[in-house]
Amino acid sequence: MVLMMATSSFSFGSWLCTGLVVFASVELQEIFLEGIVGPSSAEGSELLEALVQPLSCEGPGLSRWLALAALAHAVVYRHQGQMLSKTTAFGYPMDIQPPAFAAQVFGTRSKAVSMSTSGLQAPDGRSFFAVYLQSGLEVLREFTIRVQCIVAASRHKGAKALDLSQLQVLEADVLQLAPLMRIAAAGLCGWICLSRDMDDLGKVQREDALSKVIYELCGALQALKRLISLRGLLDFAPPTVRGAQSSFEEAQHSLYQLLMTFEHCGLQQVILPPLYKRMLEDMMRDF
C-alpha cells in the first residue's frame, strides 16, 4: 500500500513494478509458511503429543493446530506436477518415497524405511492414526456444533432470535475454528484415500475411519448449507459468509475425493442415516 501511494503519480511502469514486488512478497510468505508446517519441522512423537492437547485457539492448544497442519501438508501438497504413470488412489506415484509420517501412521515398510515398524502409539495403546482420527473428528464436530447454534436459534425464533452482539459472538466462534476445520477435513481425507494402497496393516480400516469421516462431513455440509441459506434473514458479516462458503467447498471436495476413491472399494459398507445417504446418492449422480 505504501508503494502504491508513493508511485500513484508516476507512470504505468511504476505500477507494474509495485505489483511485482507485492506478488513476490506473497509468494515468499507462502513458502515460509509451508516451511513452518512442513514434515521436516516435527517428529512423529511430537505430533502425537500435540494431537492430544485440548482444542484451543491459544496457549498450548495451538500445538494441535500445527500438528494437524503438518499432517495435512504432508499428504496433500506433495509431488505436485510429477508425471508418472503408476499412481495410488490419491494420485501418488507408487515407485517413489511415500509421504512423511507414512510409516508412523500406517506402520508399513517402505523403501525409505530400513526396517518394518508397527508405528507410533499413544500411552493408552492407541495407534498414531487412531489419535489423529479422533483429533480431526473432534474438530469437525465442534465446528458443526458452532454452525448449528446459529441455525437452531434462527429456526426456532426467526430473524429476531439473536441481537447483534449475540450474533457476533456466534459468528466469531465459527470463524475461529473454520481454518482448522478445513485443515482437518483435507488431512483426514488425504490419509484415508492413501490408505487404500499403503495401509498394509489395516490400521485405518480397523478404526472405521471412512464411515466416521463421511458421517462428519455430511453433517458439516448440512449445517453449512442451512447457514448459508440464512444470509437474507440474518445480518452476517462478510467474513462469516466467506468462511462458511470456503468451509462448505472444502467439506464437499473432501467428500467427493472419498467417494471417488472408495466407490468400488468399501463404500458399500458405509452405513449412514437416510438423509446423508440421499446426499451421497445425489453426489454420485453428479460424477
UniProtKB/TrEMBL annotation:
Top-level division of the source organism's lineage: Eukaryota
Signal peptide: 1-19
Keywords: Signal
Name recorded for this polypeptide: Nuclear pore protein
Record organism: Durusdinium trenchii
